[in-house]
Amino acid sequence: MTTLLTTHDIARIVSAHGLPQVLRRLEAAITADFRRWAEFDKVARVASHSRTGVIELMPVADAQQYSFKYVNGHPANGLQGLPTVMAFGVLADVATGQPTLLSELTITTAMRTAATSVMAARALMKKSIRQNALHGAGTMALIGNGAQSEFQALAFHHLLGINKLRLFDTDPAATAKLVRHLAQLPGLDVQVCANTREAVRGADIVTTVTADKRNAVIIDADMLSAGMHLNAVGGDCPGKTELDAQVLRSSRVFVEYEPQTRIEGELQQMPADFAVTELWRVLEGLDPGRRSDAEVTLFDSVGFALEDFSALRLMAELAQGLGLGQRVDLIPSMADPKDLFSQLSPAAAQRRAA
Ligand SMILES: NC(=O)c1ccc[n+]([C@@H]2O[C@H](COP(=O)([O-])OP(=O)(O)OC[C@H]3O[C@@H](n4cnc5c(N)ncnc54)[C@H](O)[C@@H]3O)[C@@H](O)[C@H]2O)c1
Fold it and tell me: Which class would CATH give 117-303?
């Protein structure tokens, strides 16, 4: 039998543990898996592009477990009442190939992406930002205030102590929605800005999480200031970027899985020999990460299958602890594994109905 986790189950997990704790657990799980990078069979995701968006499959495996995520990116979906990003995923047993978990991953993707952003920022941002944050002065600009934005804001607030947020979205209703949700947190100082430039001015960290199916320029190099950390989340597909190429030339660039980011990330704008560092090397202490307080660091995030592998495993564990999840016969249970045909008999249908 396979365990099914629905949107309702994931919401119950978050409600039982609290979002900050789930984000913390996700950051720890993703960090632990990135630190055993060599143990994974990795591949760049498989993308199917259309005029309106992309549908992607994201597989990864270690010696015990295999996972894949189905995810889309359709920036104009809102006009049809659908989210830009929708996802579900599977965990399977490598030894037998049996799928053990089928889970929602739309909410979980937003949480794992925010946890990954924090993991990168924790490793790369200058120490003084951390100190400022501890004293209530860490500032983040958040450009793009759609479905992912609350998760990014709350992860940086709860896990890194960022408590000043400067928001901008071309859609004022999206920003108003974010402000409404963040108003429930008394320790958070939220400022709505008139444009990206105003939001970015004086920020320690800049998170871009916009959706548009084109090479947009959200951040220009002249918006950067010394020591800034950029968390560029929204440019994650060929022909879909957020940063001017000069921003990459002015930064030290860190990526999840280089072969995938070369195709999909801000990095697609740069020549093949443009130097980048995979984040796992920093987490493992093989690369120093930021080299000076003045350097601008850029996490060119595209979302890598390993983050979903970690998230699926954690959600399975948390669901089990709470007795959540439904056992479904995604794969037939057979007394004789060679007798698949009997599954179609009226007797088998009656057994299943019972
Ligand atoms: N890197 C990752 O791991 C990862 C994971 C999930 C989503 N994403 C990407 O993050 C982006 C946001 O996803 P979402 O689910 O929040 O989408 P969404 O459609 O809900 O929100 C995107 C927001 O960006 C705003 N926007 C578009 N152009 C803008 C501009 N020029 N300036 C300011 N705001 C602008 C839109 O008005 C919208 O409110 C998407 O591009 C998605 O593909 C990346």
Answer: alpha beta
